[in-house]
């Protein structure tokens, strides 16, 4: 066992998979430049020395190189394509949604697209176009598996599983959870490090994880919000409210089995999402919970999300924009007290 | 001779009212297959409806101003042909004159460069005597098969018996056949929404192609793709990418895989003149250039992106000029000369297999049929259309076979008859094909 940051555990996963299978390669901007940064968040630092032929640095052409990654996957390679900021996924939308997600279906099952895509999300003082949470644009696309990793153990097991999966898998990571060091360290970083086994392991791509057990209220979150939810649970415990925190982790499909077990116990649910409230992934989860578990719900599902605005710059505004521990605690208290949670 | 009922076809599921506007023909008039008979108006559009038989107009039943519905009989044509078989005479016209028609002028005033001079200046040496007779006849057969398939499918679609939509390639047969004849079975092609010709040229069977258009599980995509996505990986054809330009980065990636795998395979990526305006074209071809990928980018410049003429969407005279912008080789060739297309592709394939790819080929050609469905091509100037109608790629090869290789016309007619029979046999098998069941709706999404 070693204690690793997410950036370190992702790097290990990539190295181990590339050693295990020489069809695996990385493709992205600035990912393998000698003397460079290993991508914007140091994940691929130094890998060009280990794998000089399999770290493909691209021009600034997301539509082009995501399309190329899809084509290579169709011909038997196993590419890991990344965008520097998840906001740039918009540039690749046609290739991802119209090609990667649909190729197998249109071909009547005669093609596979074993493609891994990686994208960092989250507001970090960089302004509206480098700050979005992009999960919602992909969770509704049939043909793509969508996951979000919030600690080093999950990051390694999920990335390995994604590489070995025969389908397009989109892995969302969070800029504030990487734990990158040195010049690329992020201010406002939250600790996403964890114990990581030495031996090879994979994790299922379609399961949620209970991070903290409780029986009064279920708090669902992912990425940064999963960590803030745990912090909120500590504070709620001091007030005698025992919260169960679940890291949703698989955003498409949603693991309703795990969610259902929890909701059966608590009857109350808060979903915390970083990203504008309207049209978010929480809306889908809330609808799904009502359809399946309305007989055990003591109250309607509560959603806590970012404001319906572009991500602002000024720190005062950015902090107001995004859910924080205080608001998670308040929402859970309201729900437990039987008050209707204001929308 | 038999009476053929002309009925109102399915003009769209959201259309309620169809009104007859006016007849374009008179009783006693001779009409050809596909000739417009009348104009109708729906709440969506004015459109012309075409004859599904050649013969003499016997009776006009519907009156101008009358409201009609899908399936109503509106006229009778006394047909002078058996069935709807495409005859040799409609495909290969023996021409006394060997003179080239003069070049058409675009409405904008730009003079279009005659394909013959393009072929000459592009240094494509074509010596018809250097080819094996069997090979030449196979080129002819394949082009005739594509033409026949497309003409028969057009009528089936107009009759209303075929679902969905169609984007056809009549007139562009030499592009598909010339390119694919230079590829091996394990080379790949990517295609577009206009992929029927590419499919037949690459070896997809008539049966699996036709069955796919009817949505059967024995179709090449198990009924899940349809006309715009036909393909067959076992024959080296990726299902058509219907987003214009979408196949350009994909093909670069496939070539990247071949290079990384140290495989001698190459990929030919078909797209039209409209695609060169898309960002995907720019990004994909640039990747192919910087990584020296074994991909042949084949632009079928048929002068129109849907209804918009190519000189309205770019300043360049030649699409192949754009290759220089990316630092790769480009070449423009007469797309209706199947041997010139074959030769240039052969050269490009060899370069790619030697690691000296990629290449951008511009094949200058013309679409004889509409963009899709019932497009009557009113945006194509009459002189331009006539010029290209006289440069039928199948006729051009047929002329050379007869004139320079001693092939008898009867032999060409025999090929045509075989091709007609192939289609008839496939058509006869359509009613027996299994259709998907509803539980197949959500299969084949994930592996």
Explain the overall architecture.
The complex is a heterodimer of chains A (343) and B (447). By secondary structure, chain A is of the alpha/beta class. Chain A is 35% helix and 19% strand. Chain A has two domains: 2-196, Thiamin diphosphate (ThDP)-binding fold, Pyr/PP domains (Rossmann fold, 3-Layer(aba) Sandwich), CATH 3.40.50.970; 209-337, Rossmann fold. Chain A has helices at 6-20, 47-50, 62-74, 93-100, 103-106, 136-139, 152-164, 224-238, 256-266, 281-293, 315-321, 325-337, and strands at 2-4, 24-28, 55-57, 78-82, 116-121, 145-148, 169-174, 194-196, 209-212, 217-221, 243-247, 250-252, 269-276, 302-306. In chain A, the strands form three sheets. In chain A, strands 3-2-4-5-7-6-12 form a seven-stranded mixed sheet, with helices on both faces. A five-stranded mixed sheet of chain A has the order 9-11-10-13-14, with helices on both faces. A two-stranded antiparallel sheet of chain A has the order 1-8. In chain A, α1 (6-20) runs parallel beside α7 (152-164) and α8 (224-238) packs across α12 (325-337). Chain B is of the alpha/beta class and 447 residues long. In chain B, 34% of the residues lie in helices and 16% in strands. The radius of gyration of chain B is 22 Å and the shape is globular.
- Percentage of residues in helical conformation of chain A: 25-40%
The number of helical runs of chain B is 13
Number of domains of chain A: 2
CATH topology of the largest domain in chain A: Rossmann fold
CATH architecture of the largest domain in chain A: 3-Layer(aba) Sandwich
Please outline the major beta sheet of chain B.
5 strands, parallel
CATH homology-level superfamily of the largest domain in chain A: Thiamin diphosphate (ThDP)-binding fold, Pyr/PP domains
């Amino acid at each position: 066992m070693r204690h690793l940051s997410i950036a370190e555990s992702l790097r290990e996963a990539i190295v181990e998979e590339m050693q295990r299978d020489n069809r695996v390669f990385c493709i992205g901007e600035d990912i393998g430049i000698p003397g460079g940064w290993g991508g914007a968040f140091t994940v691929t630092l130094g890998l060009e020395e280990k794998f000089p032929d399999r770290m493909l640095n691209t021009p600034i052409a997301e539509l082009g190189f995501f399309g190329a990654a899809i084509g290579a996957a169709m011909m038997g390679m196993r590419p890991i394509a990344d965008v520097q900021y998840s906001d740039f996924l918009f540039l690749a939308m046609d290739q991802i949604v119209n090609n990667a997600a649909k190729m197998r279906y249109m071909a009547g099952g005669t093609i596979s697209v074993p493609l891994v895509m990686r994208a960092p999300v989250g507001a970090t003082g960089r302004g509206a176009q480098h700050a979005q949470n992009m999960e919602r644009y992909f969770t509704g696309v049939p043909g793509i598996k969508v996951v979000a990793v919030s600690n080093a153990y999950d990051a390694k097991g999920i990335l390995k599983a994604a590489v070995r999966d025969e389908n397009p898998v989109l892995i969302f990571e969070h800029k504030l959870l990487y734990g990158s060091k040195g010049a690329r360290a992020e201010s406002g970083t939250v600790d996403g490090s964890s114990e990581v086994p030495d031996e090879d392991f994979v994790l299922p791509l379609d399961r949620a994880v209970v991070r903290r057990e409780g029986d009064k209220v279920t708090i669902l979150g992912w990425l940064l919000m999963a960590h803030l939810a745990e912090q909120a649970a500590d504070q709620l415990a001091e007030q005698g409210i025992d919260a169960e925190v679940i890291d949703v982790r698989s955003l498409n499909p949603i693991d309703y089995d795990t969610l259902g077990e929890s909701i059966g116990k608590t009857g109350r649910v808060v979903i915390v999402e970083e990203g504008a409230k309207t049209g978010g992934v929480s809306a889908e989860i809330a609808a799904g919970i009502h359809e399946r578990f309305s007989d055990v719900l003591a109250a309607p599902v509560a959603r806590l999300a970012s404001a319906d605005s572009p991500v602002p710059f000024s720190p005062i505004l950015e902090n107001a924009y995004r859910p924080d521990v205080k608001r998670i605690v308040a929402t859970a208290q309201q729900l437990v007290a039987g008050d209707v949670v204001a929308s | 001779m038999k009476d053929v009922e002309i009925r109102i076809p399915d003009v769209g599921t959201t259309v309620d009212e169809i009104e007859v506007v006016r007849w374009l023909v008179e009783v006693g008039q001779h009409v050809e297959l596909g000739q417009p008979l009348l104009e109708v108006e729906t709440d969506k559009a004015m459109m012309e409806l075409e004859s599904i038989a050649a013969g003499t107009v016997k009776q006009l039943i519907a009156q101008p101003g009358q409201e009609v519905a899908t399936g109503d009989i509106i006229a009778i044509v006394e047909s002078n042909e058996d069935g709807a078989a495409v005859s040799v005479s409609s495909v290969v016209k023996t021409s006394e004159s060997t003179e080239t028609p003069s070049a058409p002028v675009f409405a904008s005033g730009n003079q279009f460069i005659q394909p013959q001079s393009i072929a000459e200046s592009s240094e494509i040496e074509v010596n018809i005597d250097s080819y094996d007779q069997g090979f030449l006849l196979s080129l002819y057969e394949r082009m005739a098969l594509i033409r026949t398939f497309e003409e028969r499918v057009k009528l089936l679609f107009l009759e209303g018996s075929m679902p969905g939509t169609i984007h056809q390639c009549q007139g562009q047969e030499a592009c598909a056949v010339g390119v694919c004849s230079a590829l091996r079975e394990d080379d790949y092609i990517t295609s577009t929404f206009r992929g029927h010709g590419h499919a037949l040229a690459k070896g997809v069977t008539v049966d699996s192609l036709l069955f796919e258009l009817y949505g059967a599980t024995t179709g090449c995509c198990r009924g899940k793709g349809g006309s715009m996505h036909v393909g067959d990986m076992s024959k080296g054809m990726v299902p058509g990418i219907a987003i214009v330009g979408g196949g350009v980065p994909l093909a670069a990636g496939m070539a990247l895989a071949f290079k990384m795998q140290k495989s001698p395979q190459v990929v030919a990526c078909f797209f039209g003149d409209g695609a060169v305006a898309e960002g995907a074209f720019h990004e994909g071809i640039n990747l192919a250039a910087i990584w020296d990928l074994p991909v042949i980018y084949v632009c079928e410049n048929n002068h129109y992106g849907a209804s918009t003429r190519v000189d309205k969407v770019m300043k360049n005279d030649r699409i192949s000029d754009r290759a220089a912008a990316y630092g790769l080789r480009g070449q423009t060739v007469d797309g209706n000369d199947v041997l010139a297309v074959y030769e240039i592709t052969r050269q490009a394939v060899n370069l790619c297999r030697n690691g000296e790819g990629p290449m951008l080929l511009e094949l200058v050609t013309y679409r004889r049929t509409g963009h899709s469905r019932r497009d009557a091509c009113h945006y194509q100037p009459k002189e331009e259309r006539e010029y290209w109608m006289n440069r039928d790629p199948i006729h051009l090869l047929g002329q050379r076979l007869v004139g320079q290789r001693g092939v008898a016309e009867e032999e060409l007619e025999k090929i045509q008859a075989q091709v007609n029979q192939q289609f008839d046999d496939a058509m006869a098998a359509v009613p027996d094909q299994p259709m998907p069941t509803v539980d197949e709706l959500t299969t084949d999404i994930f592996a």
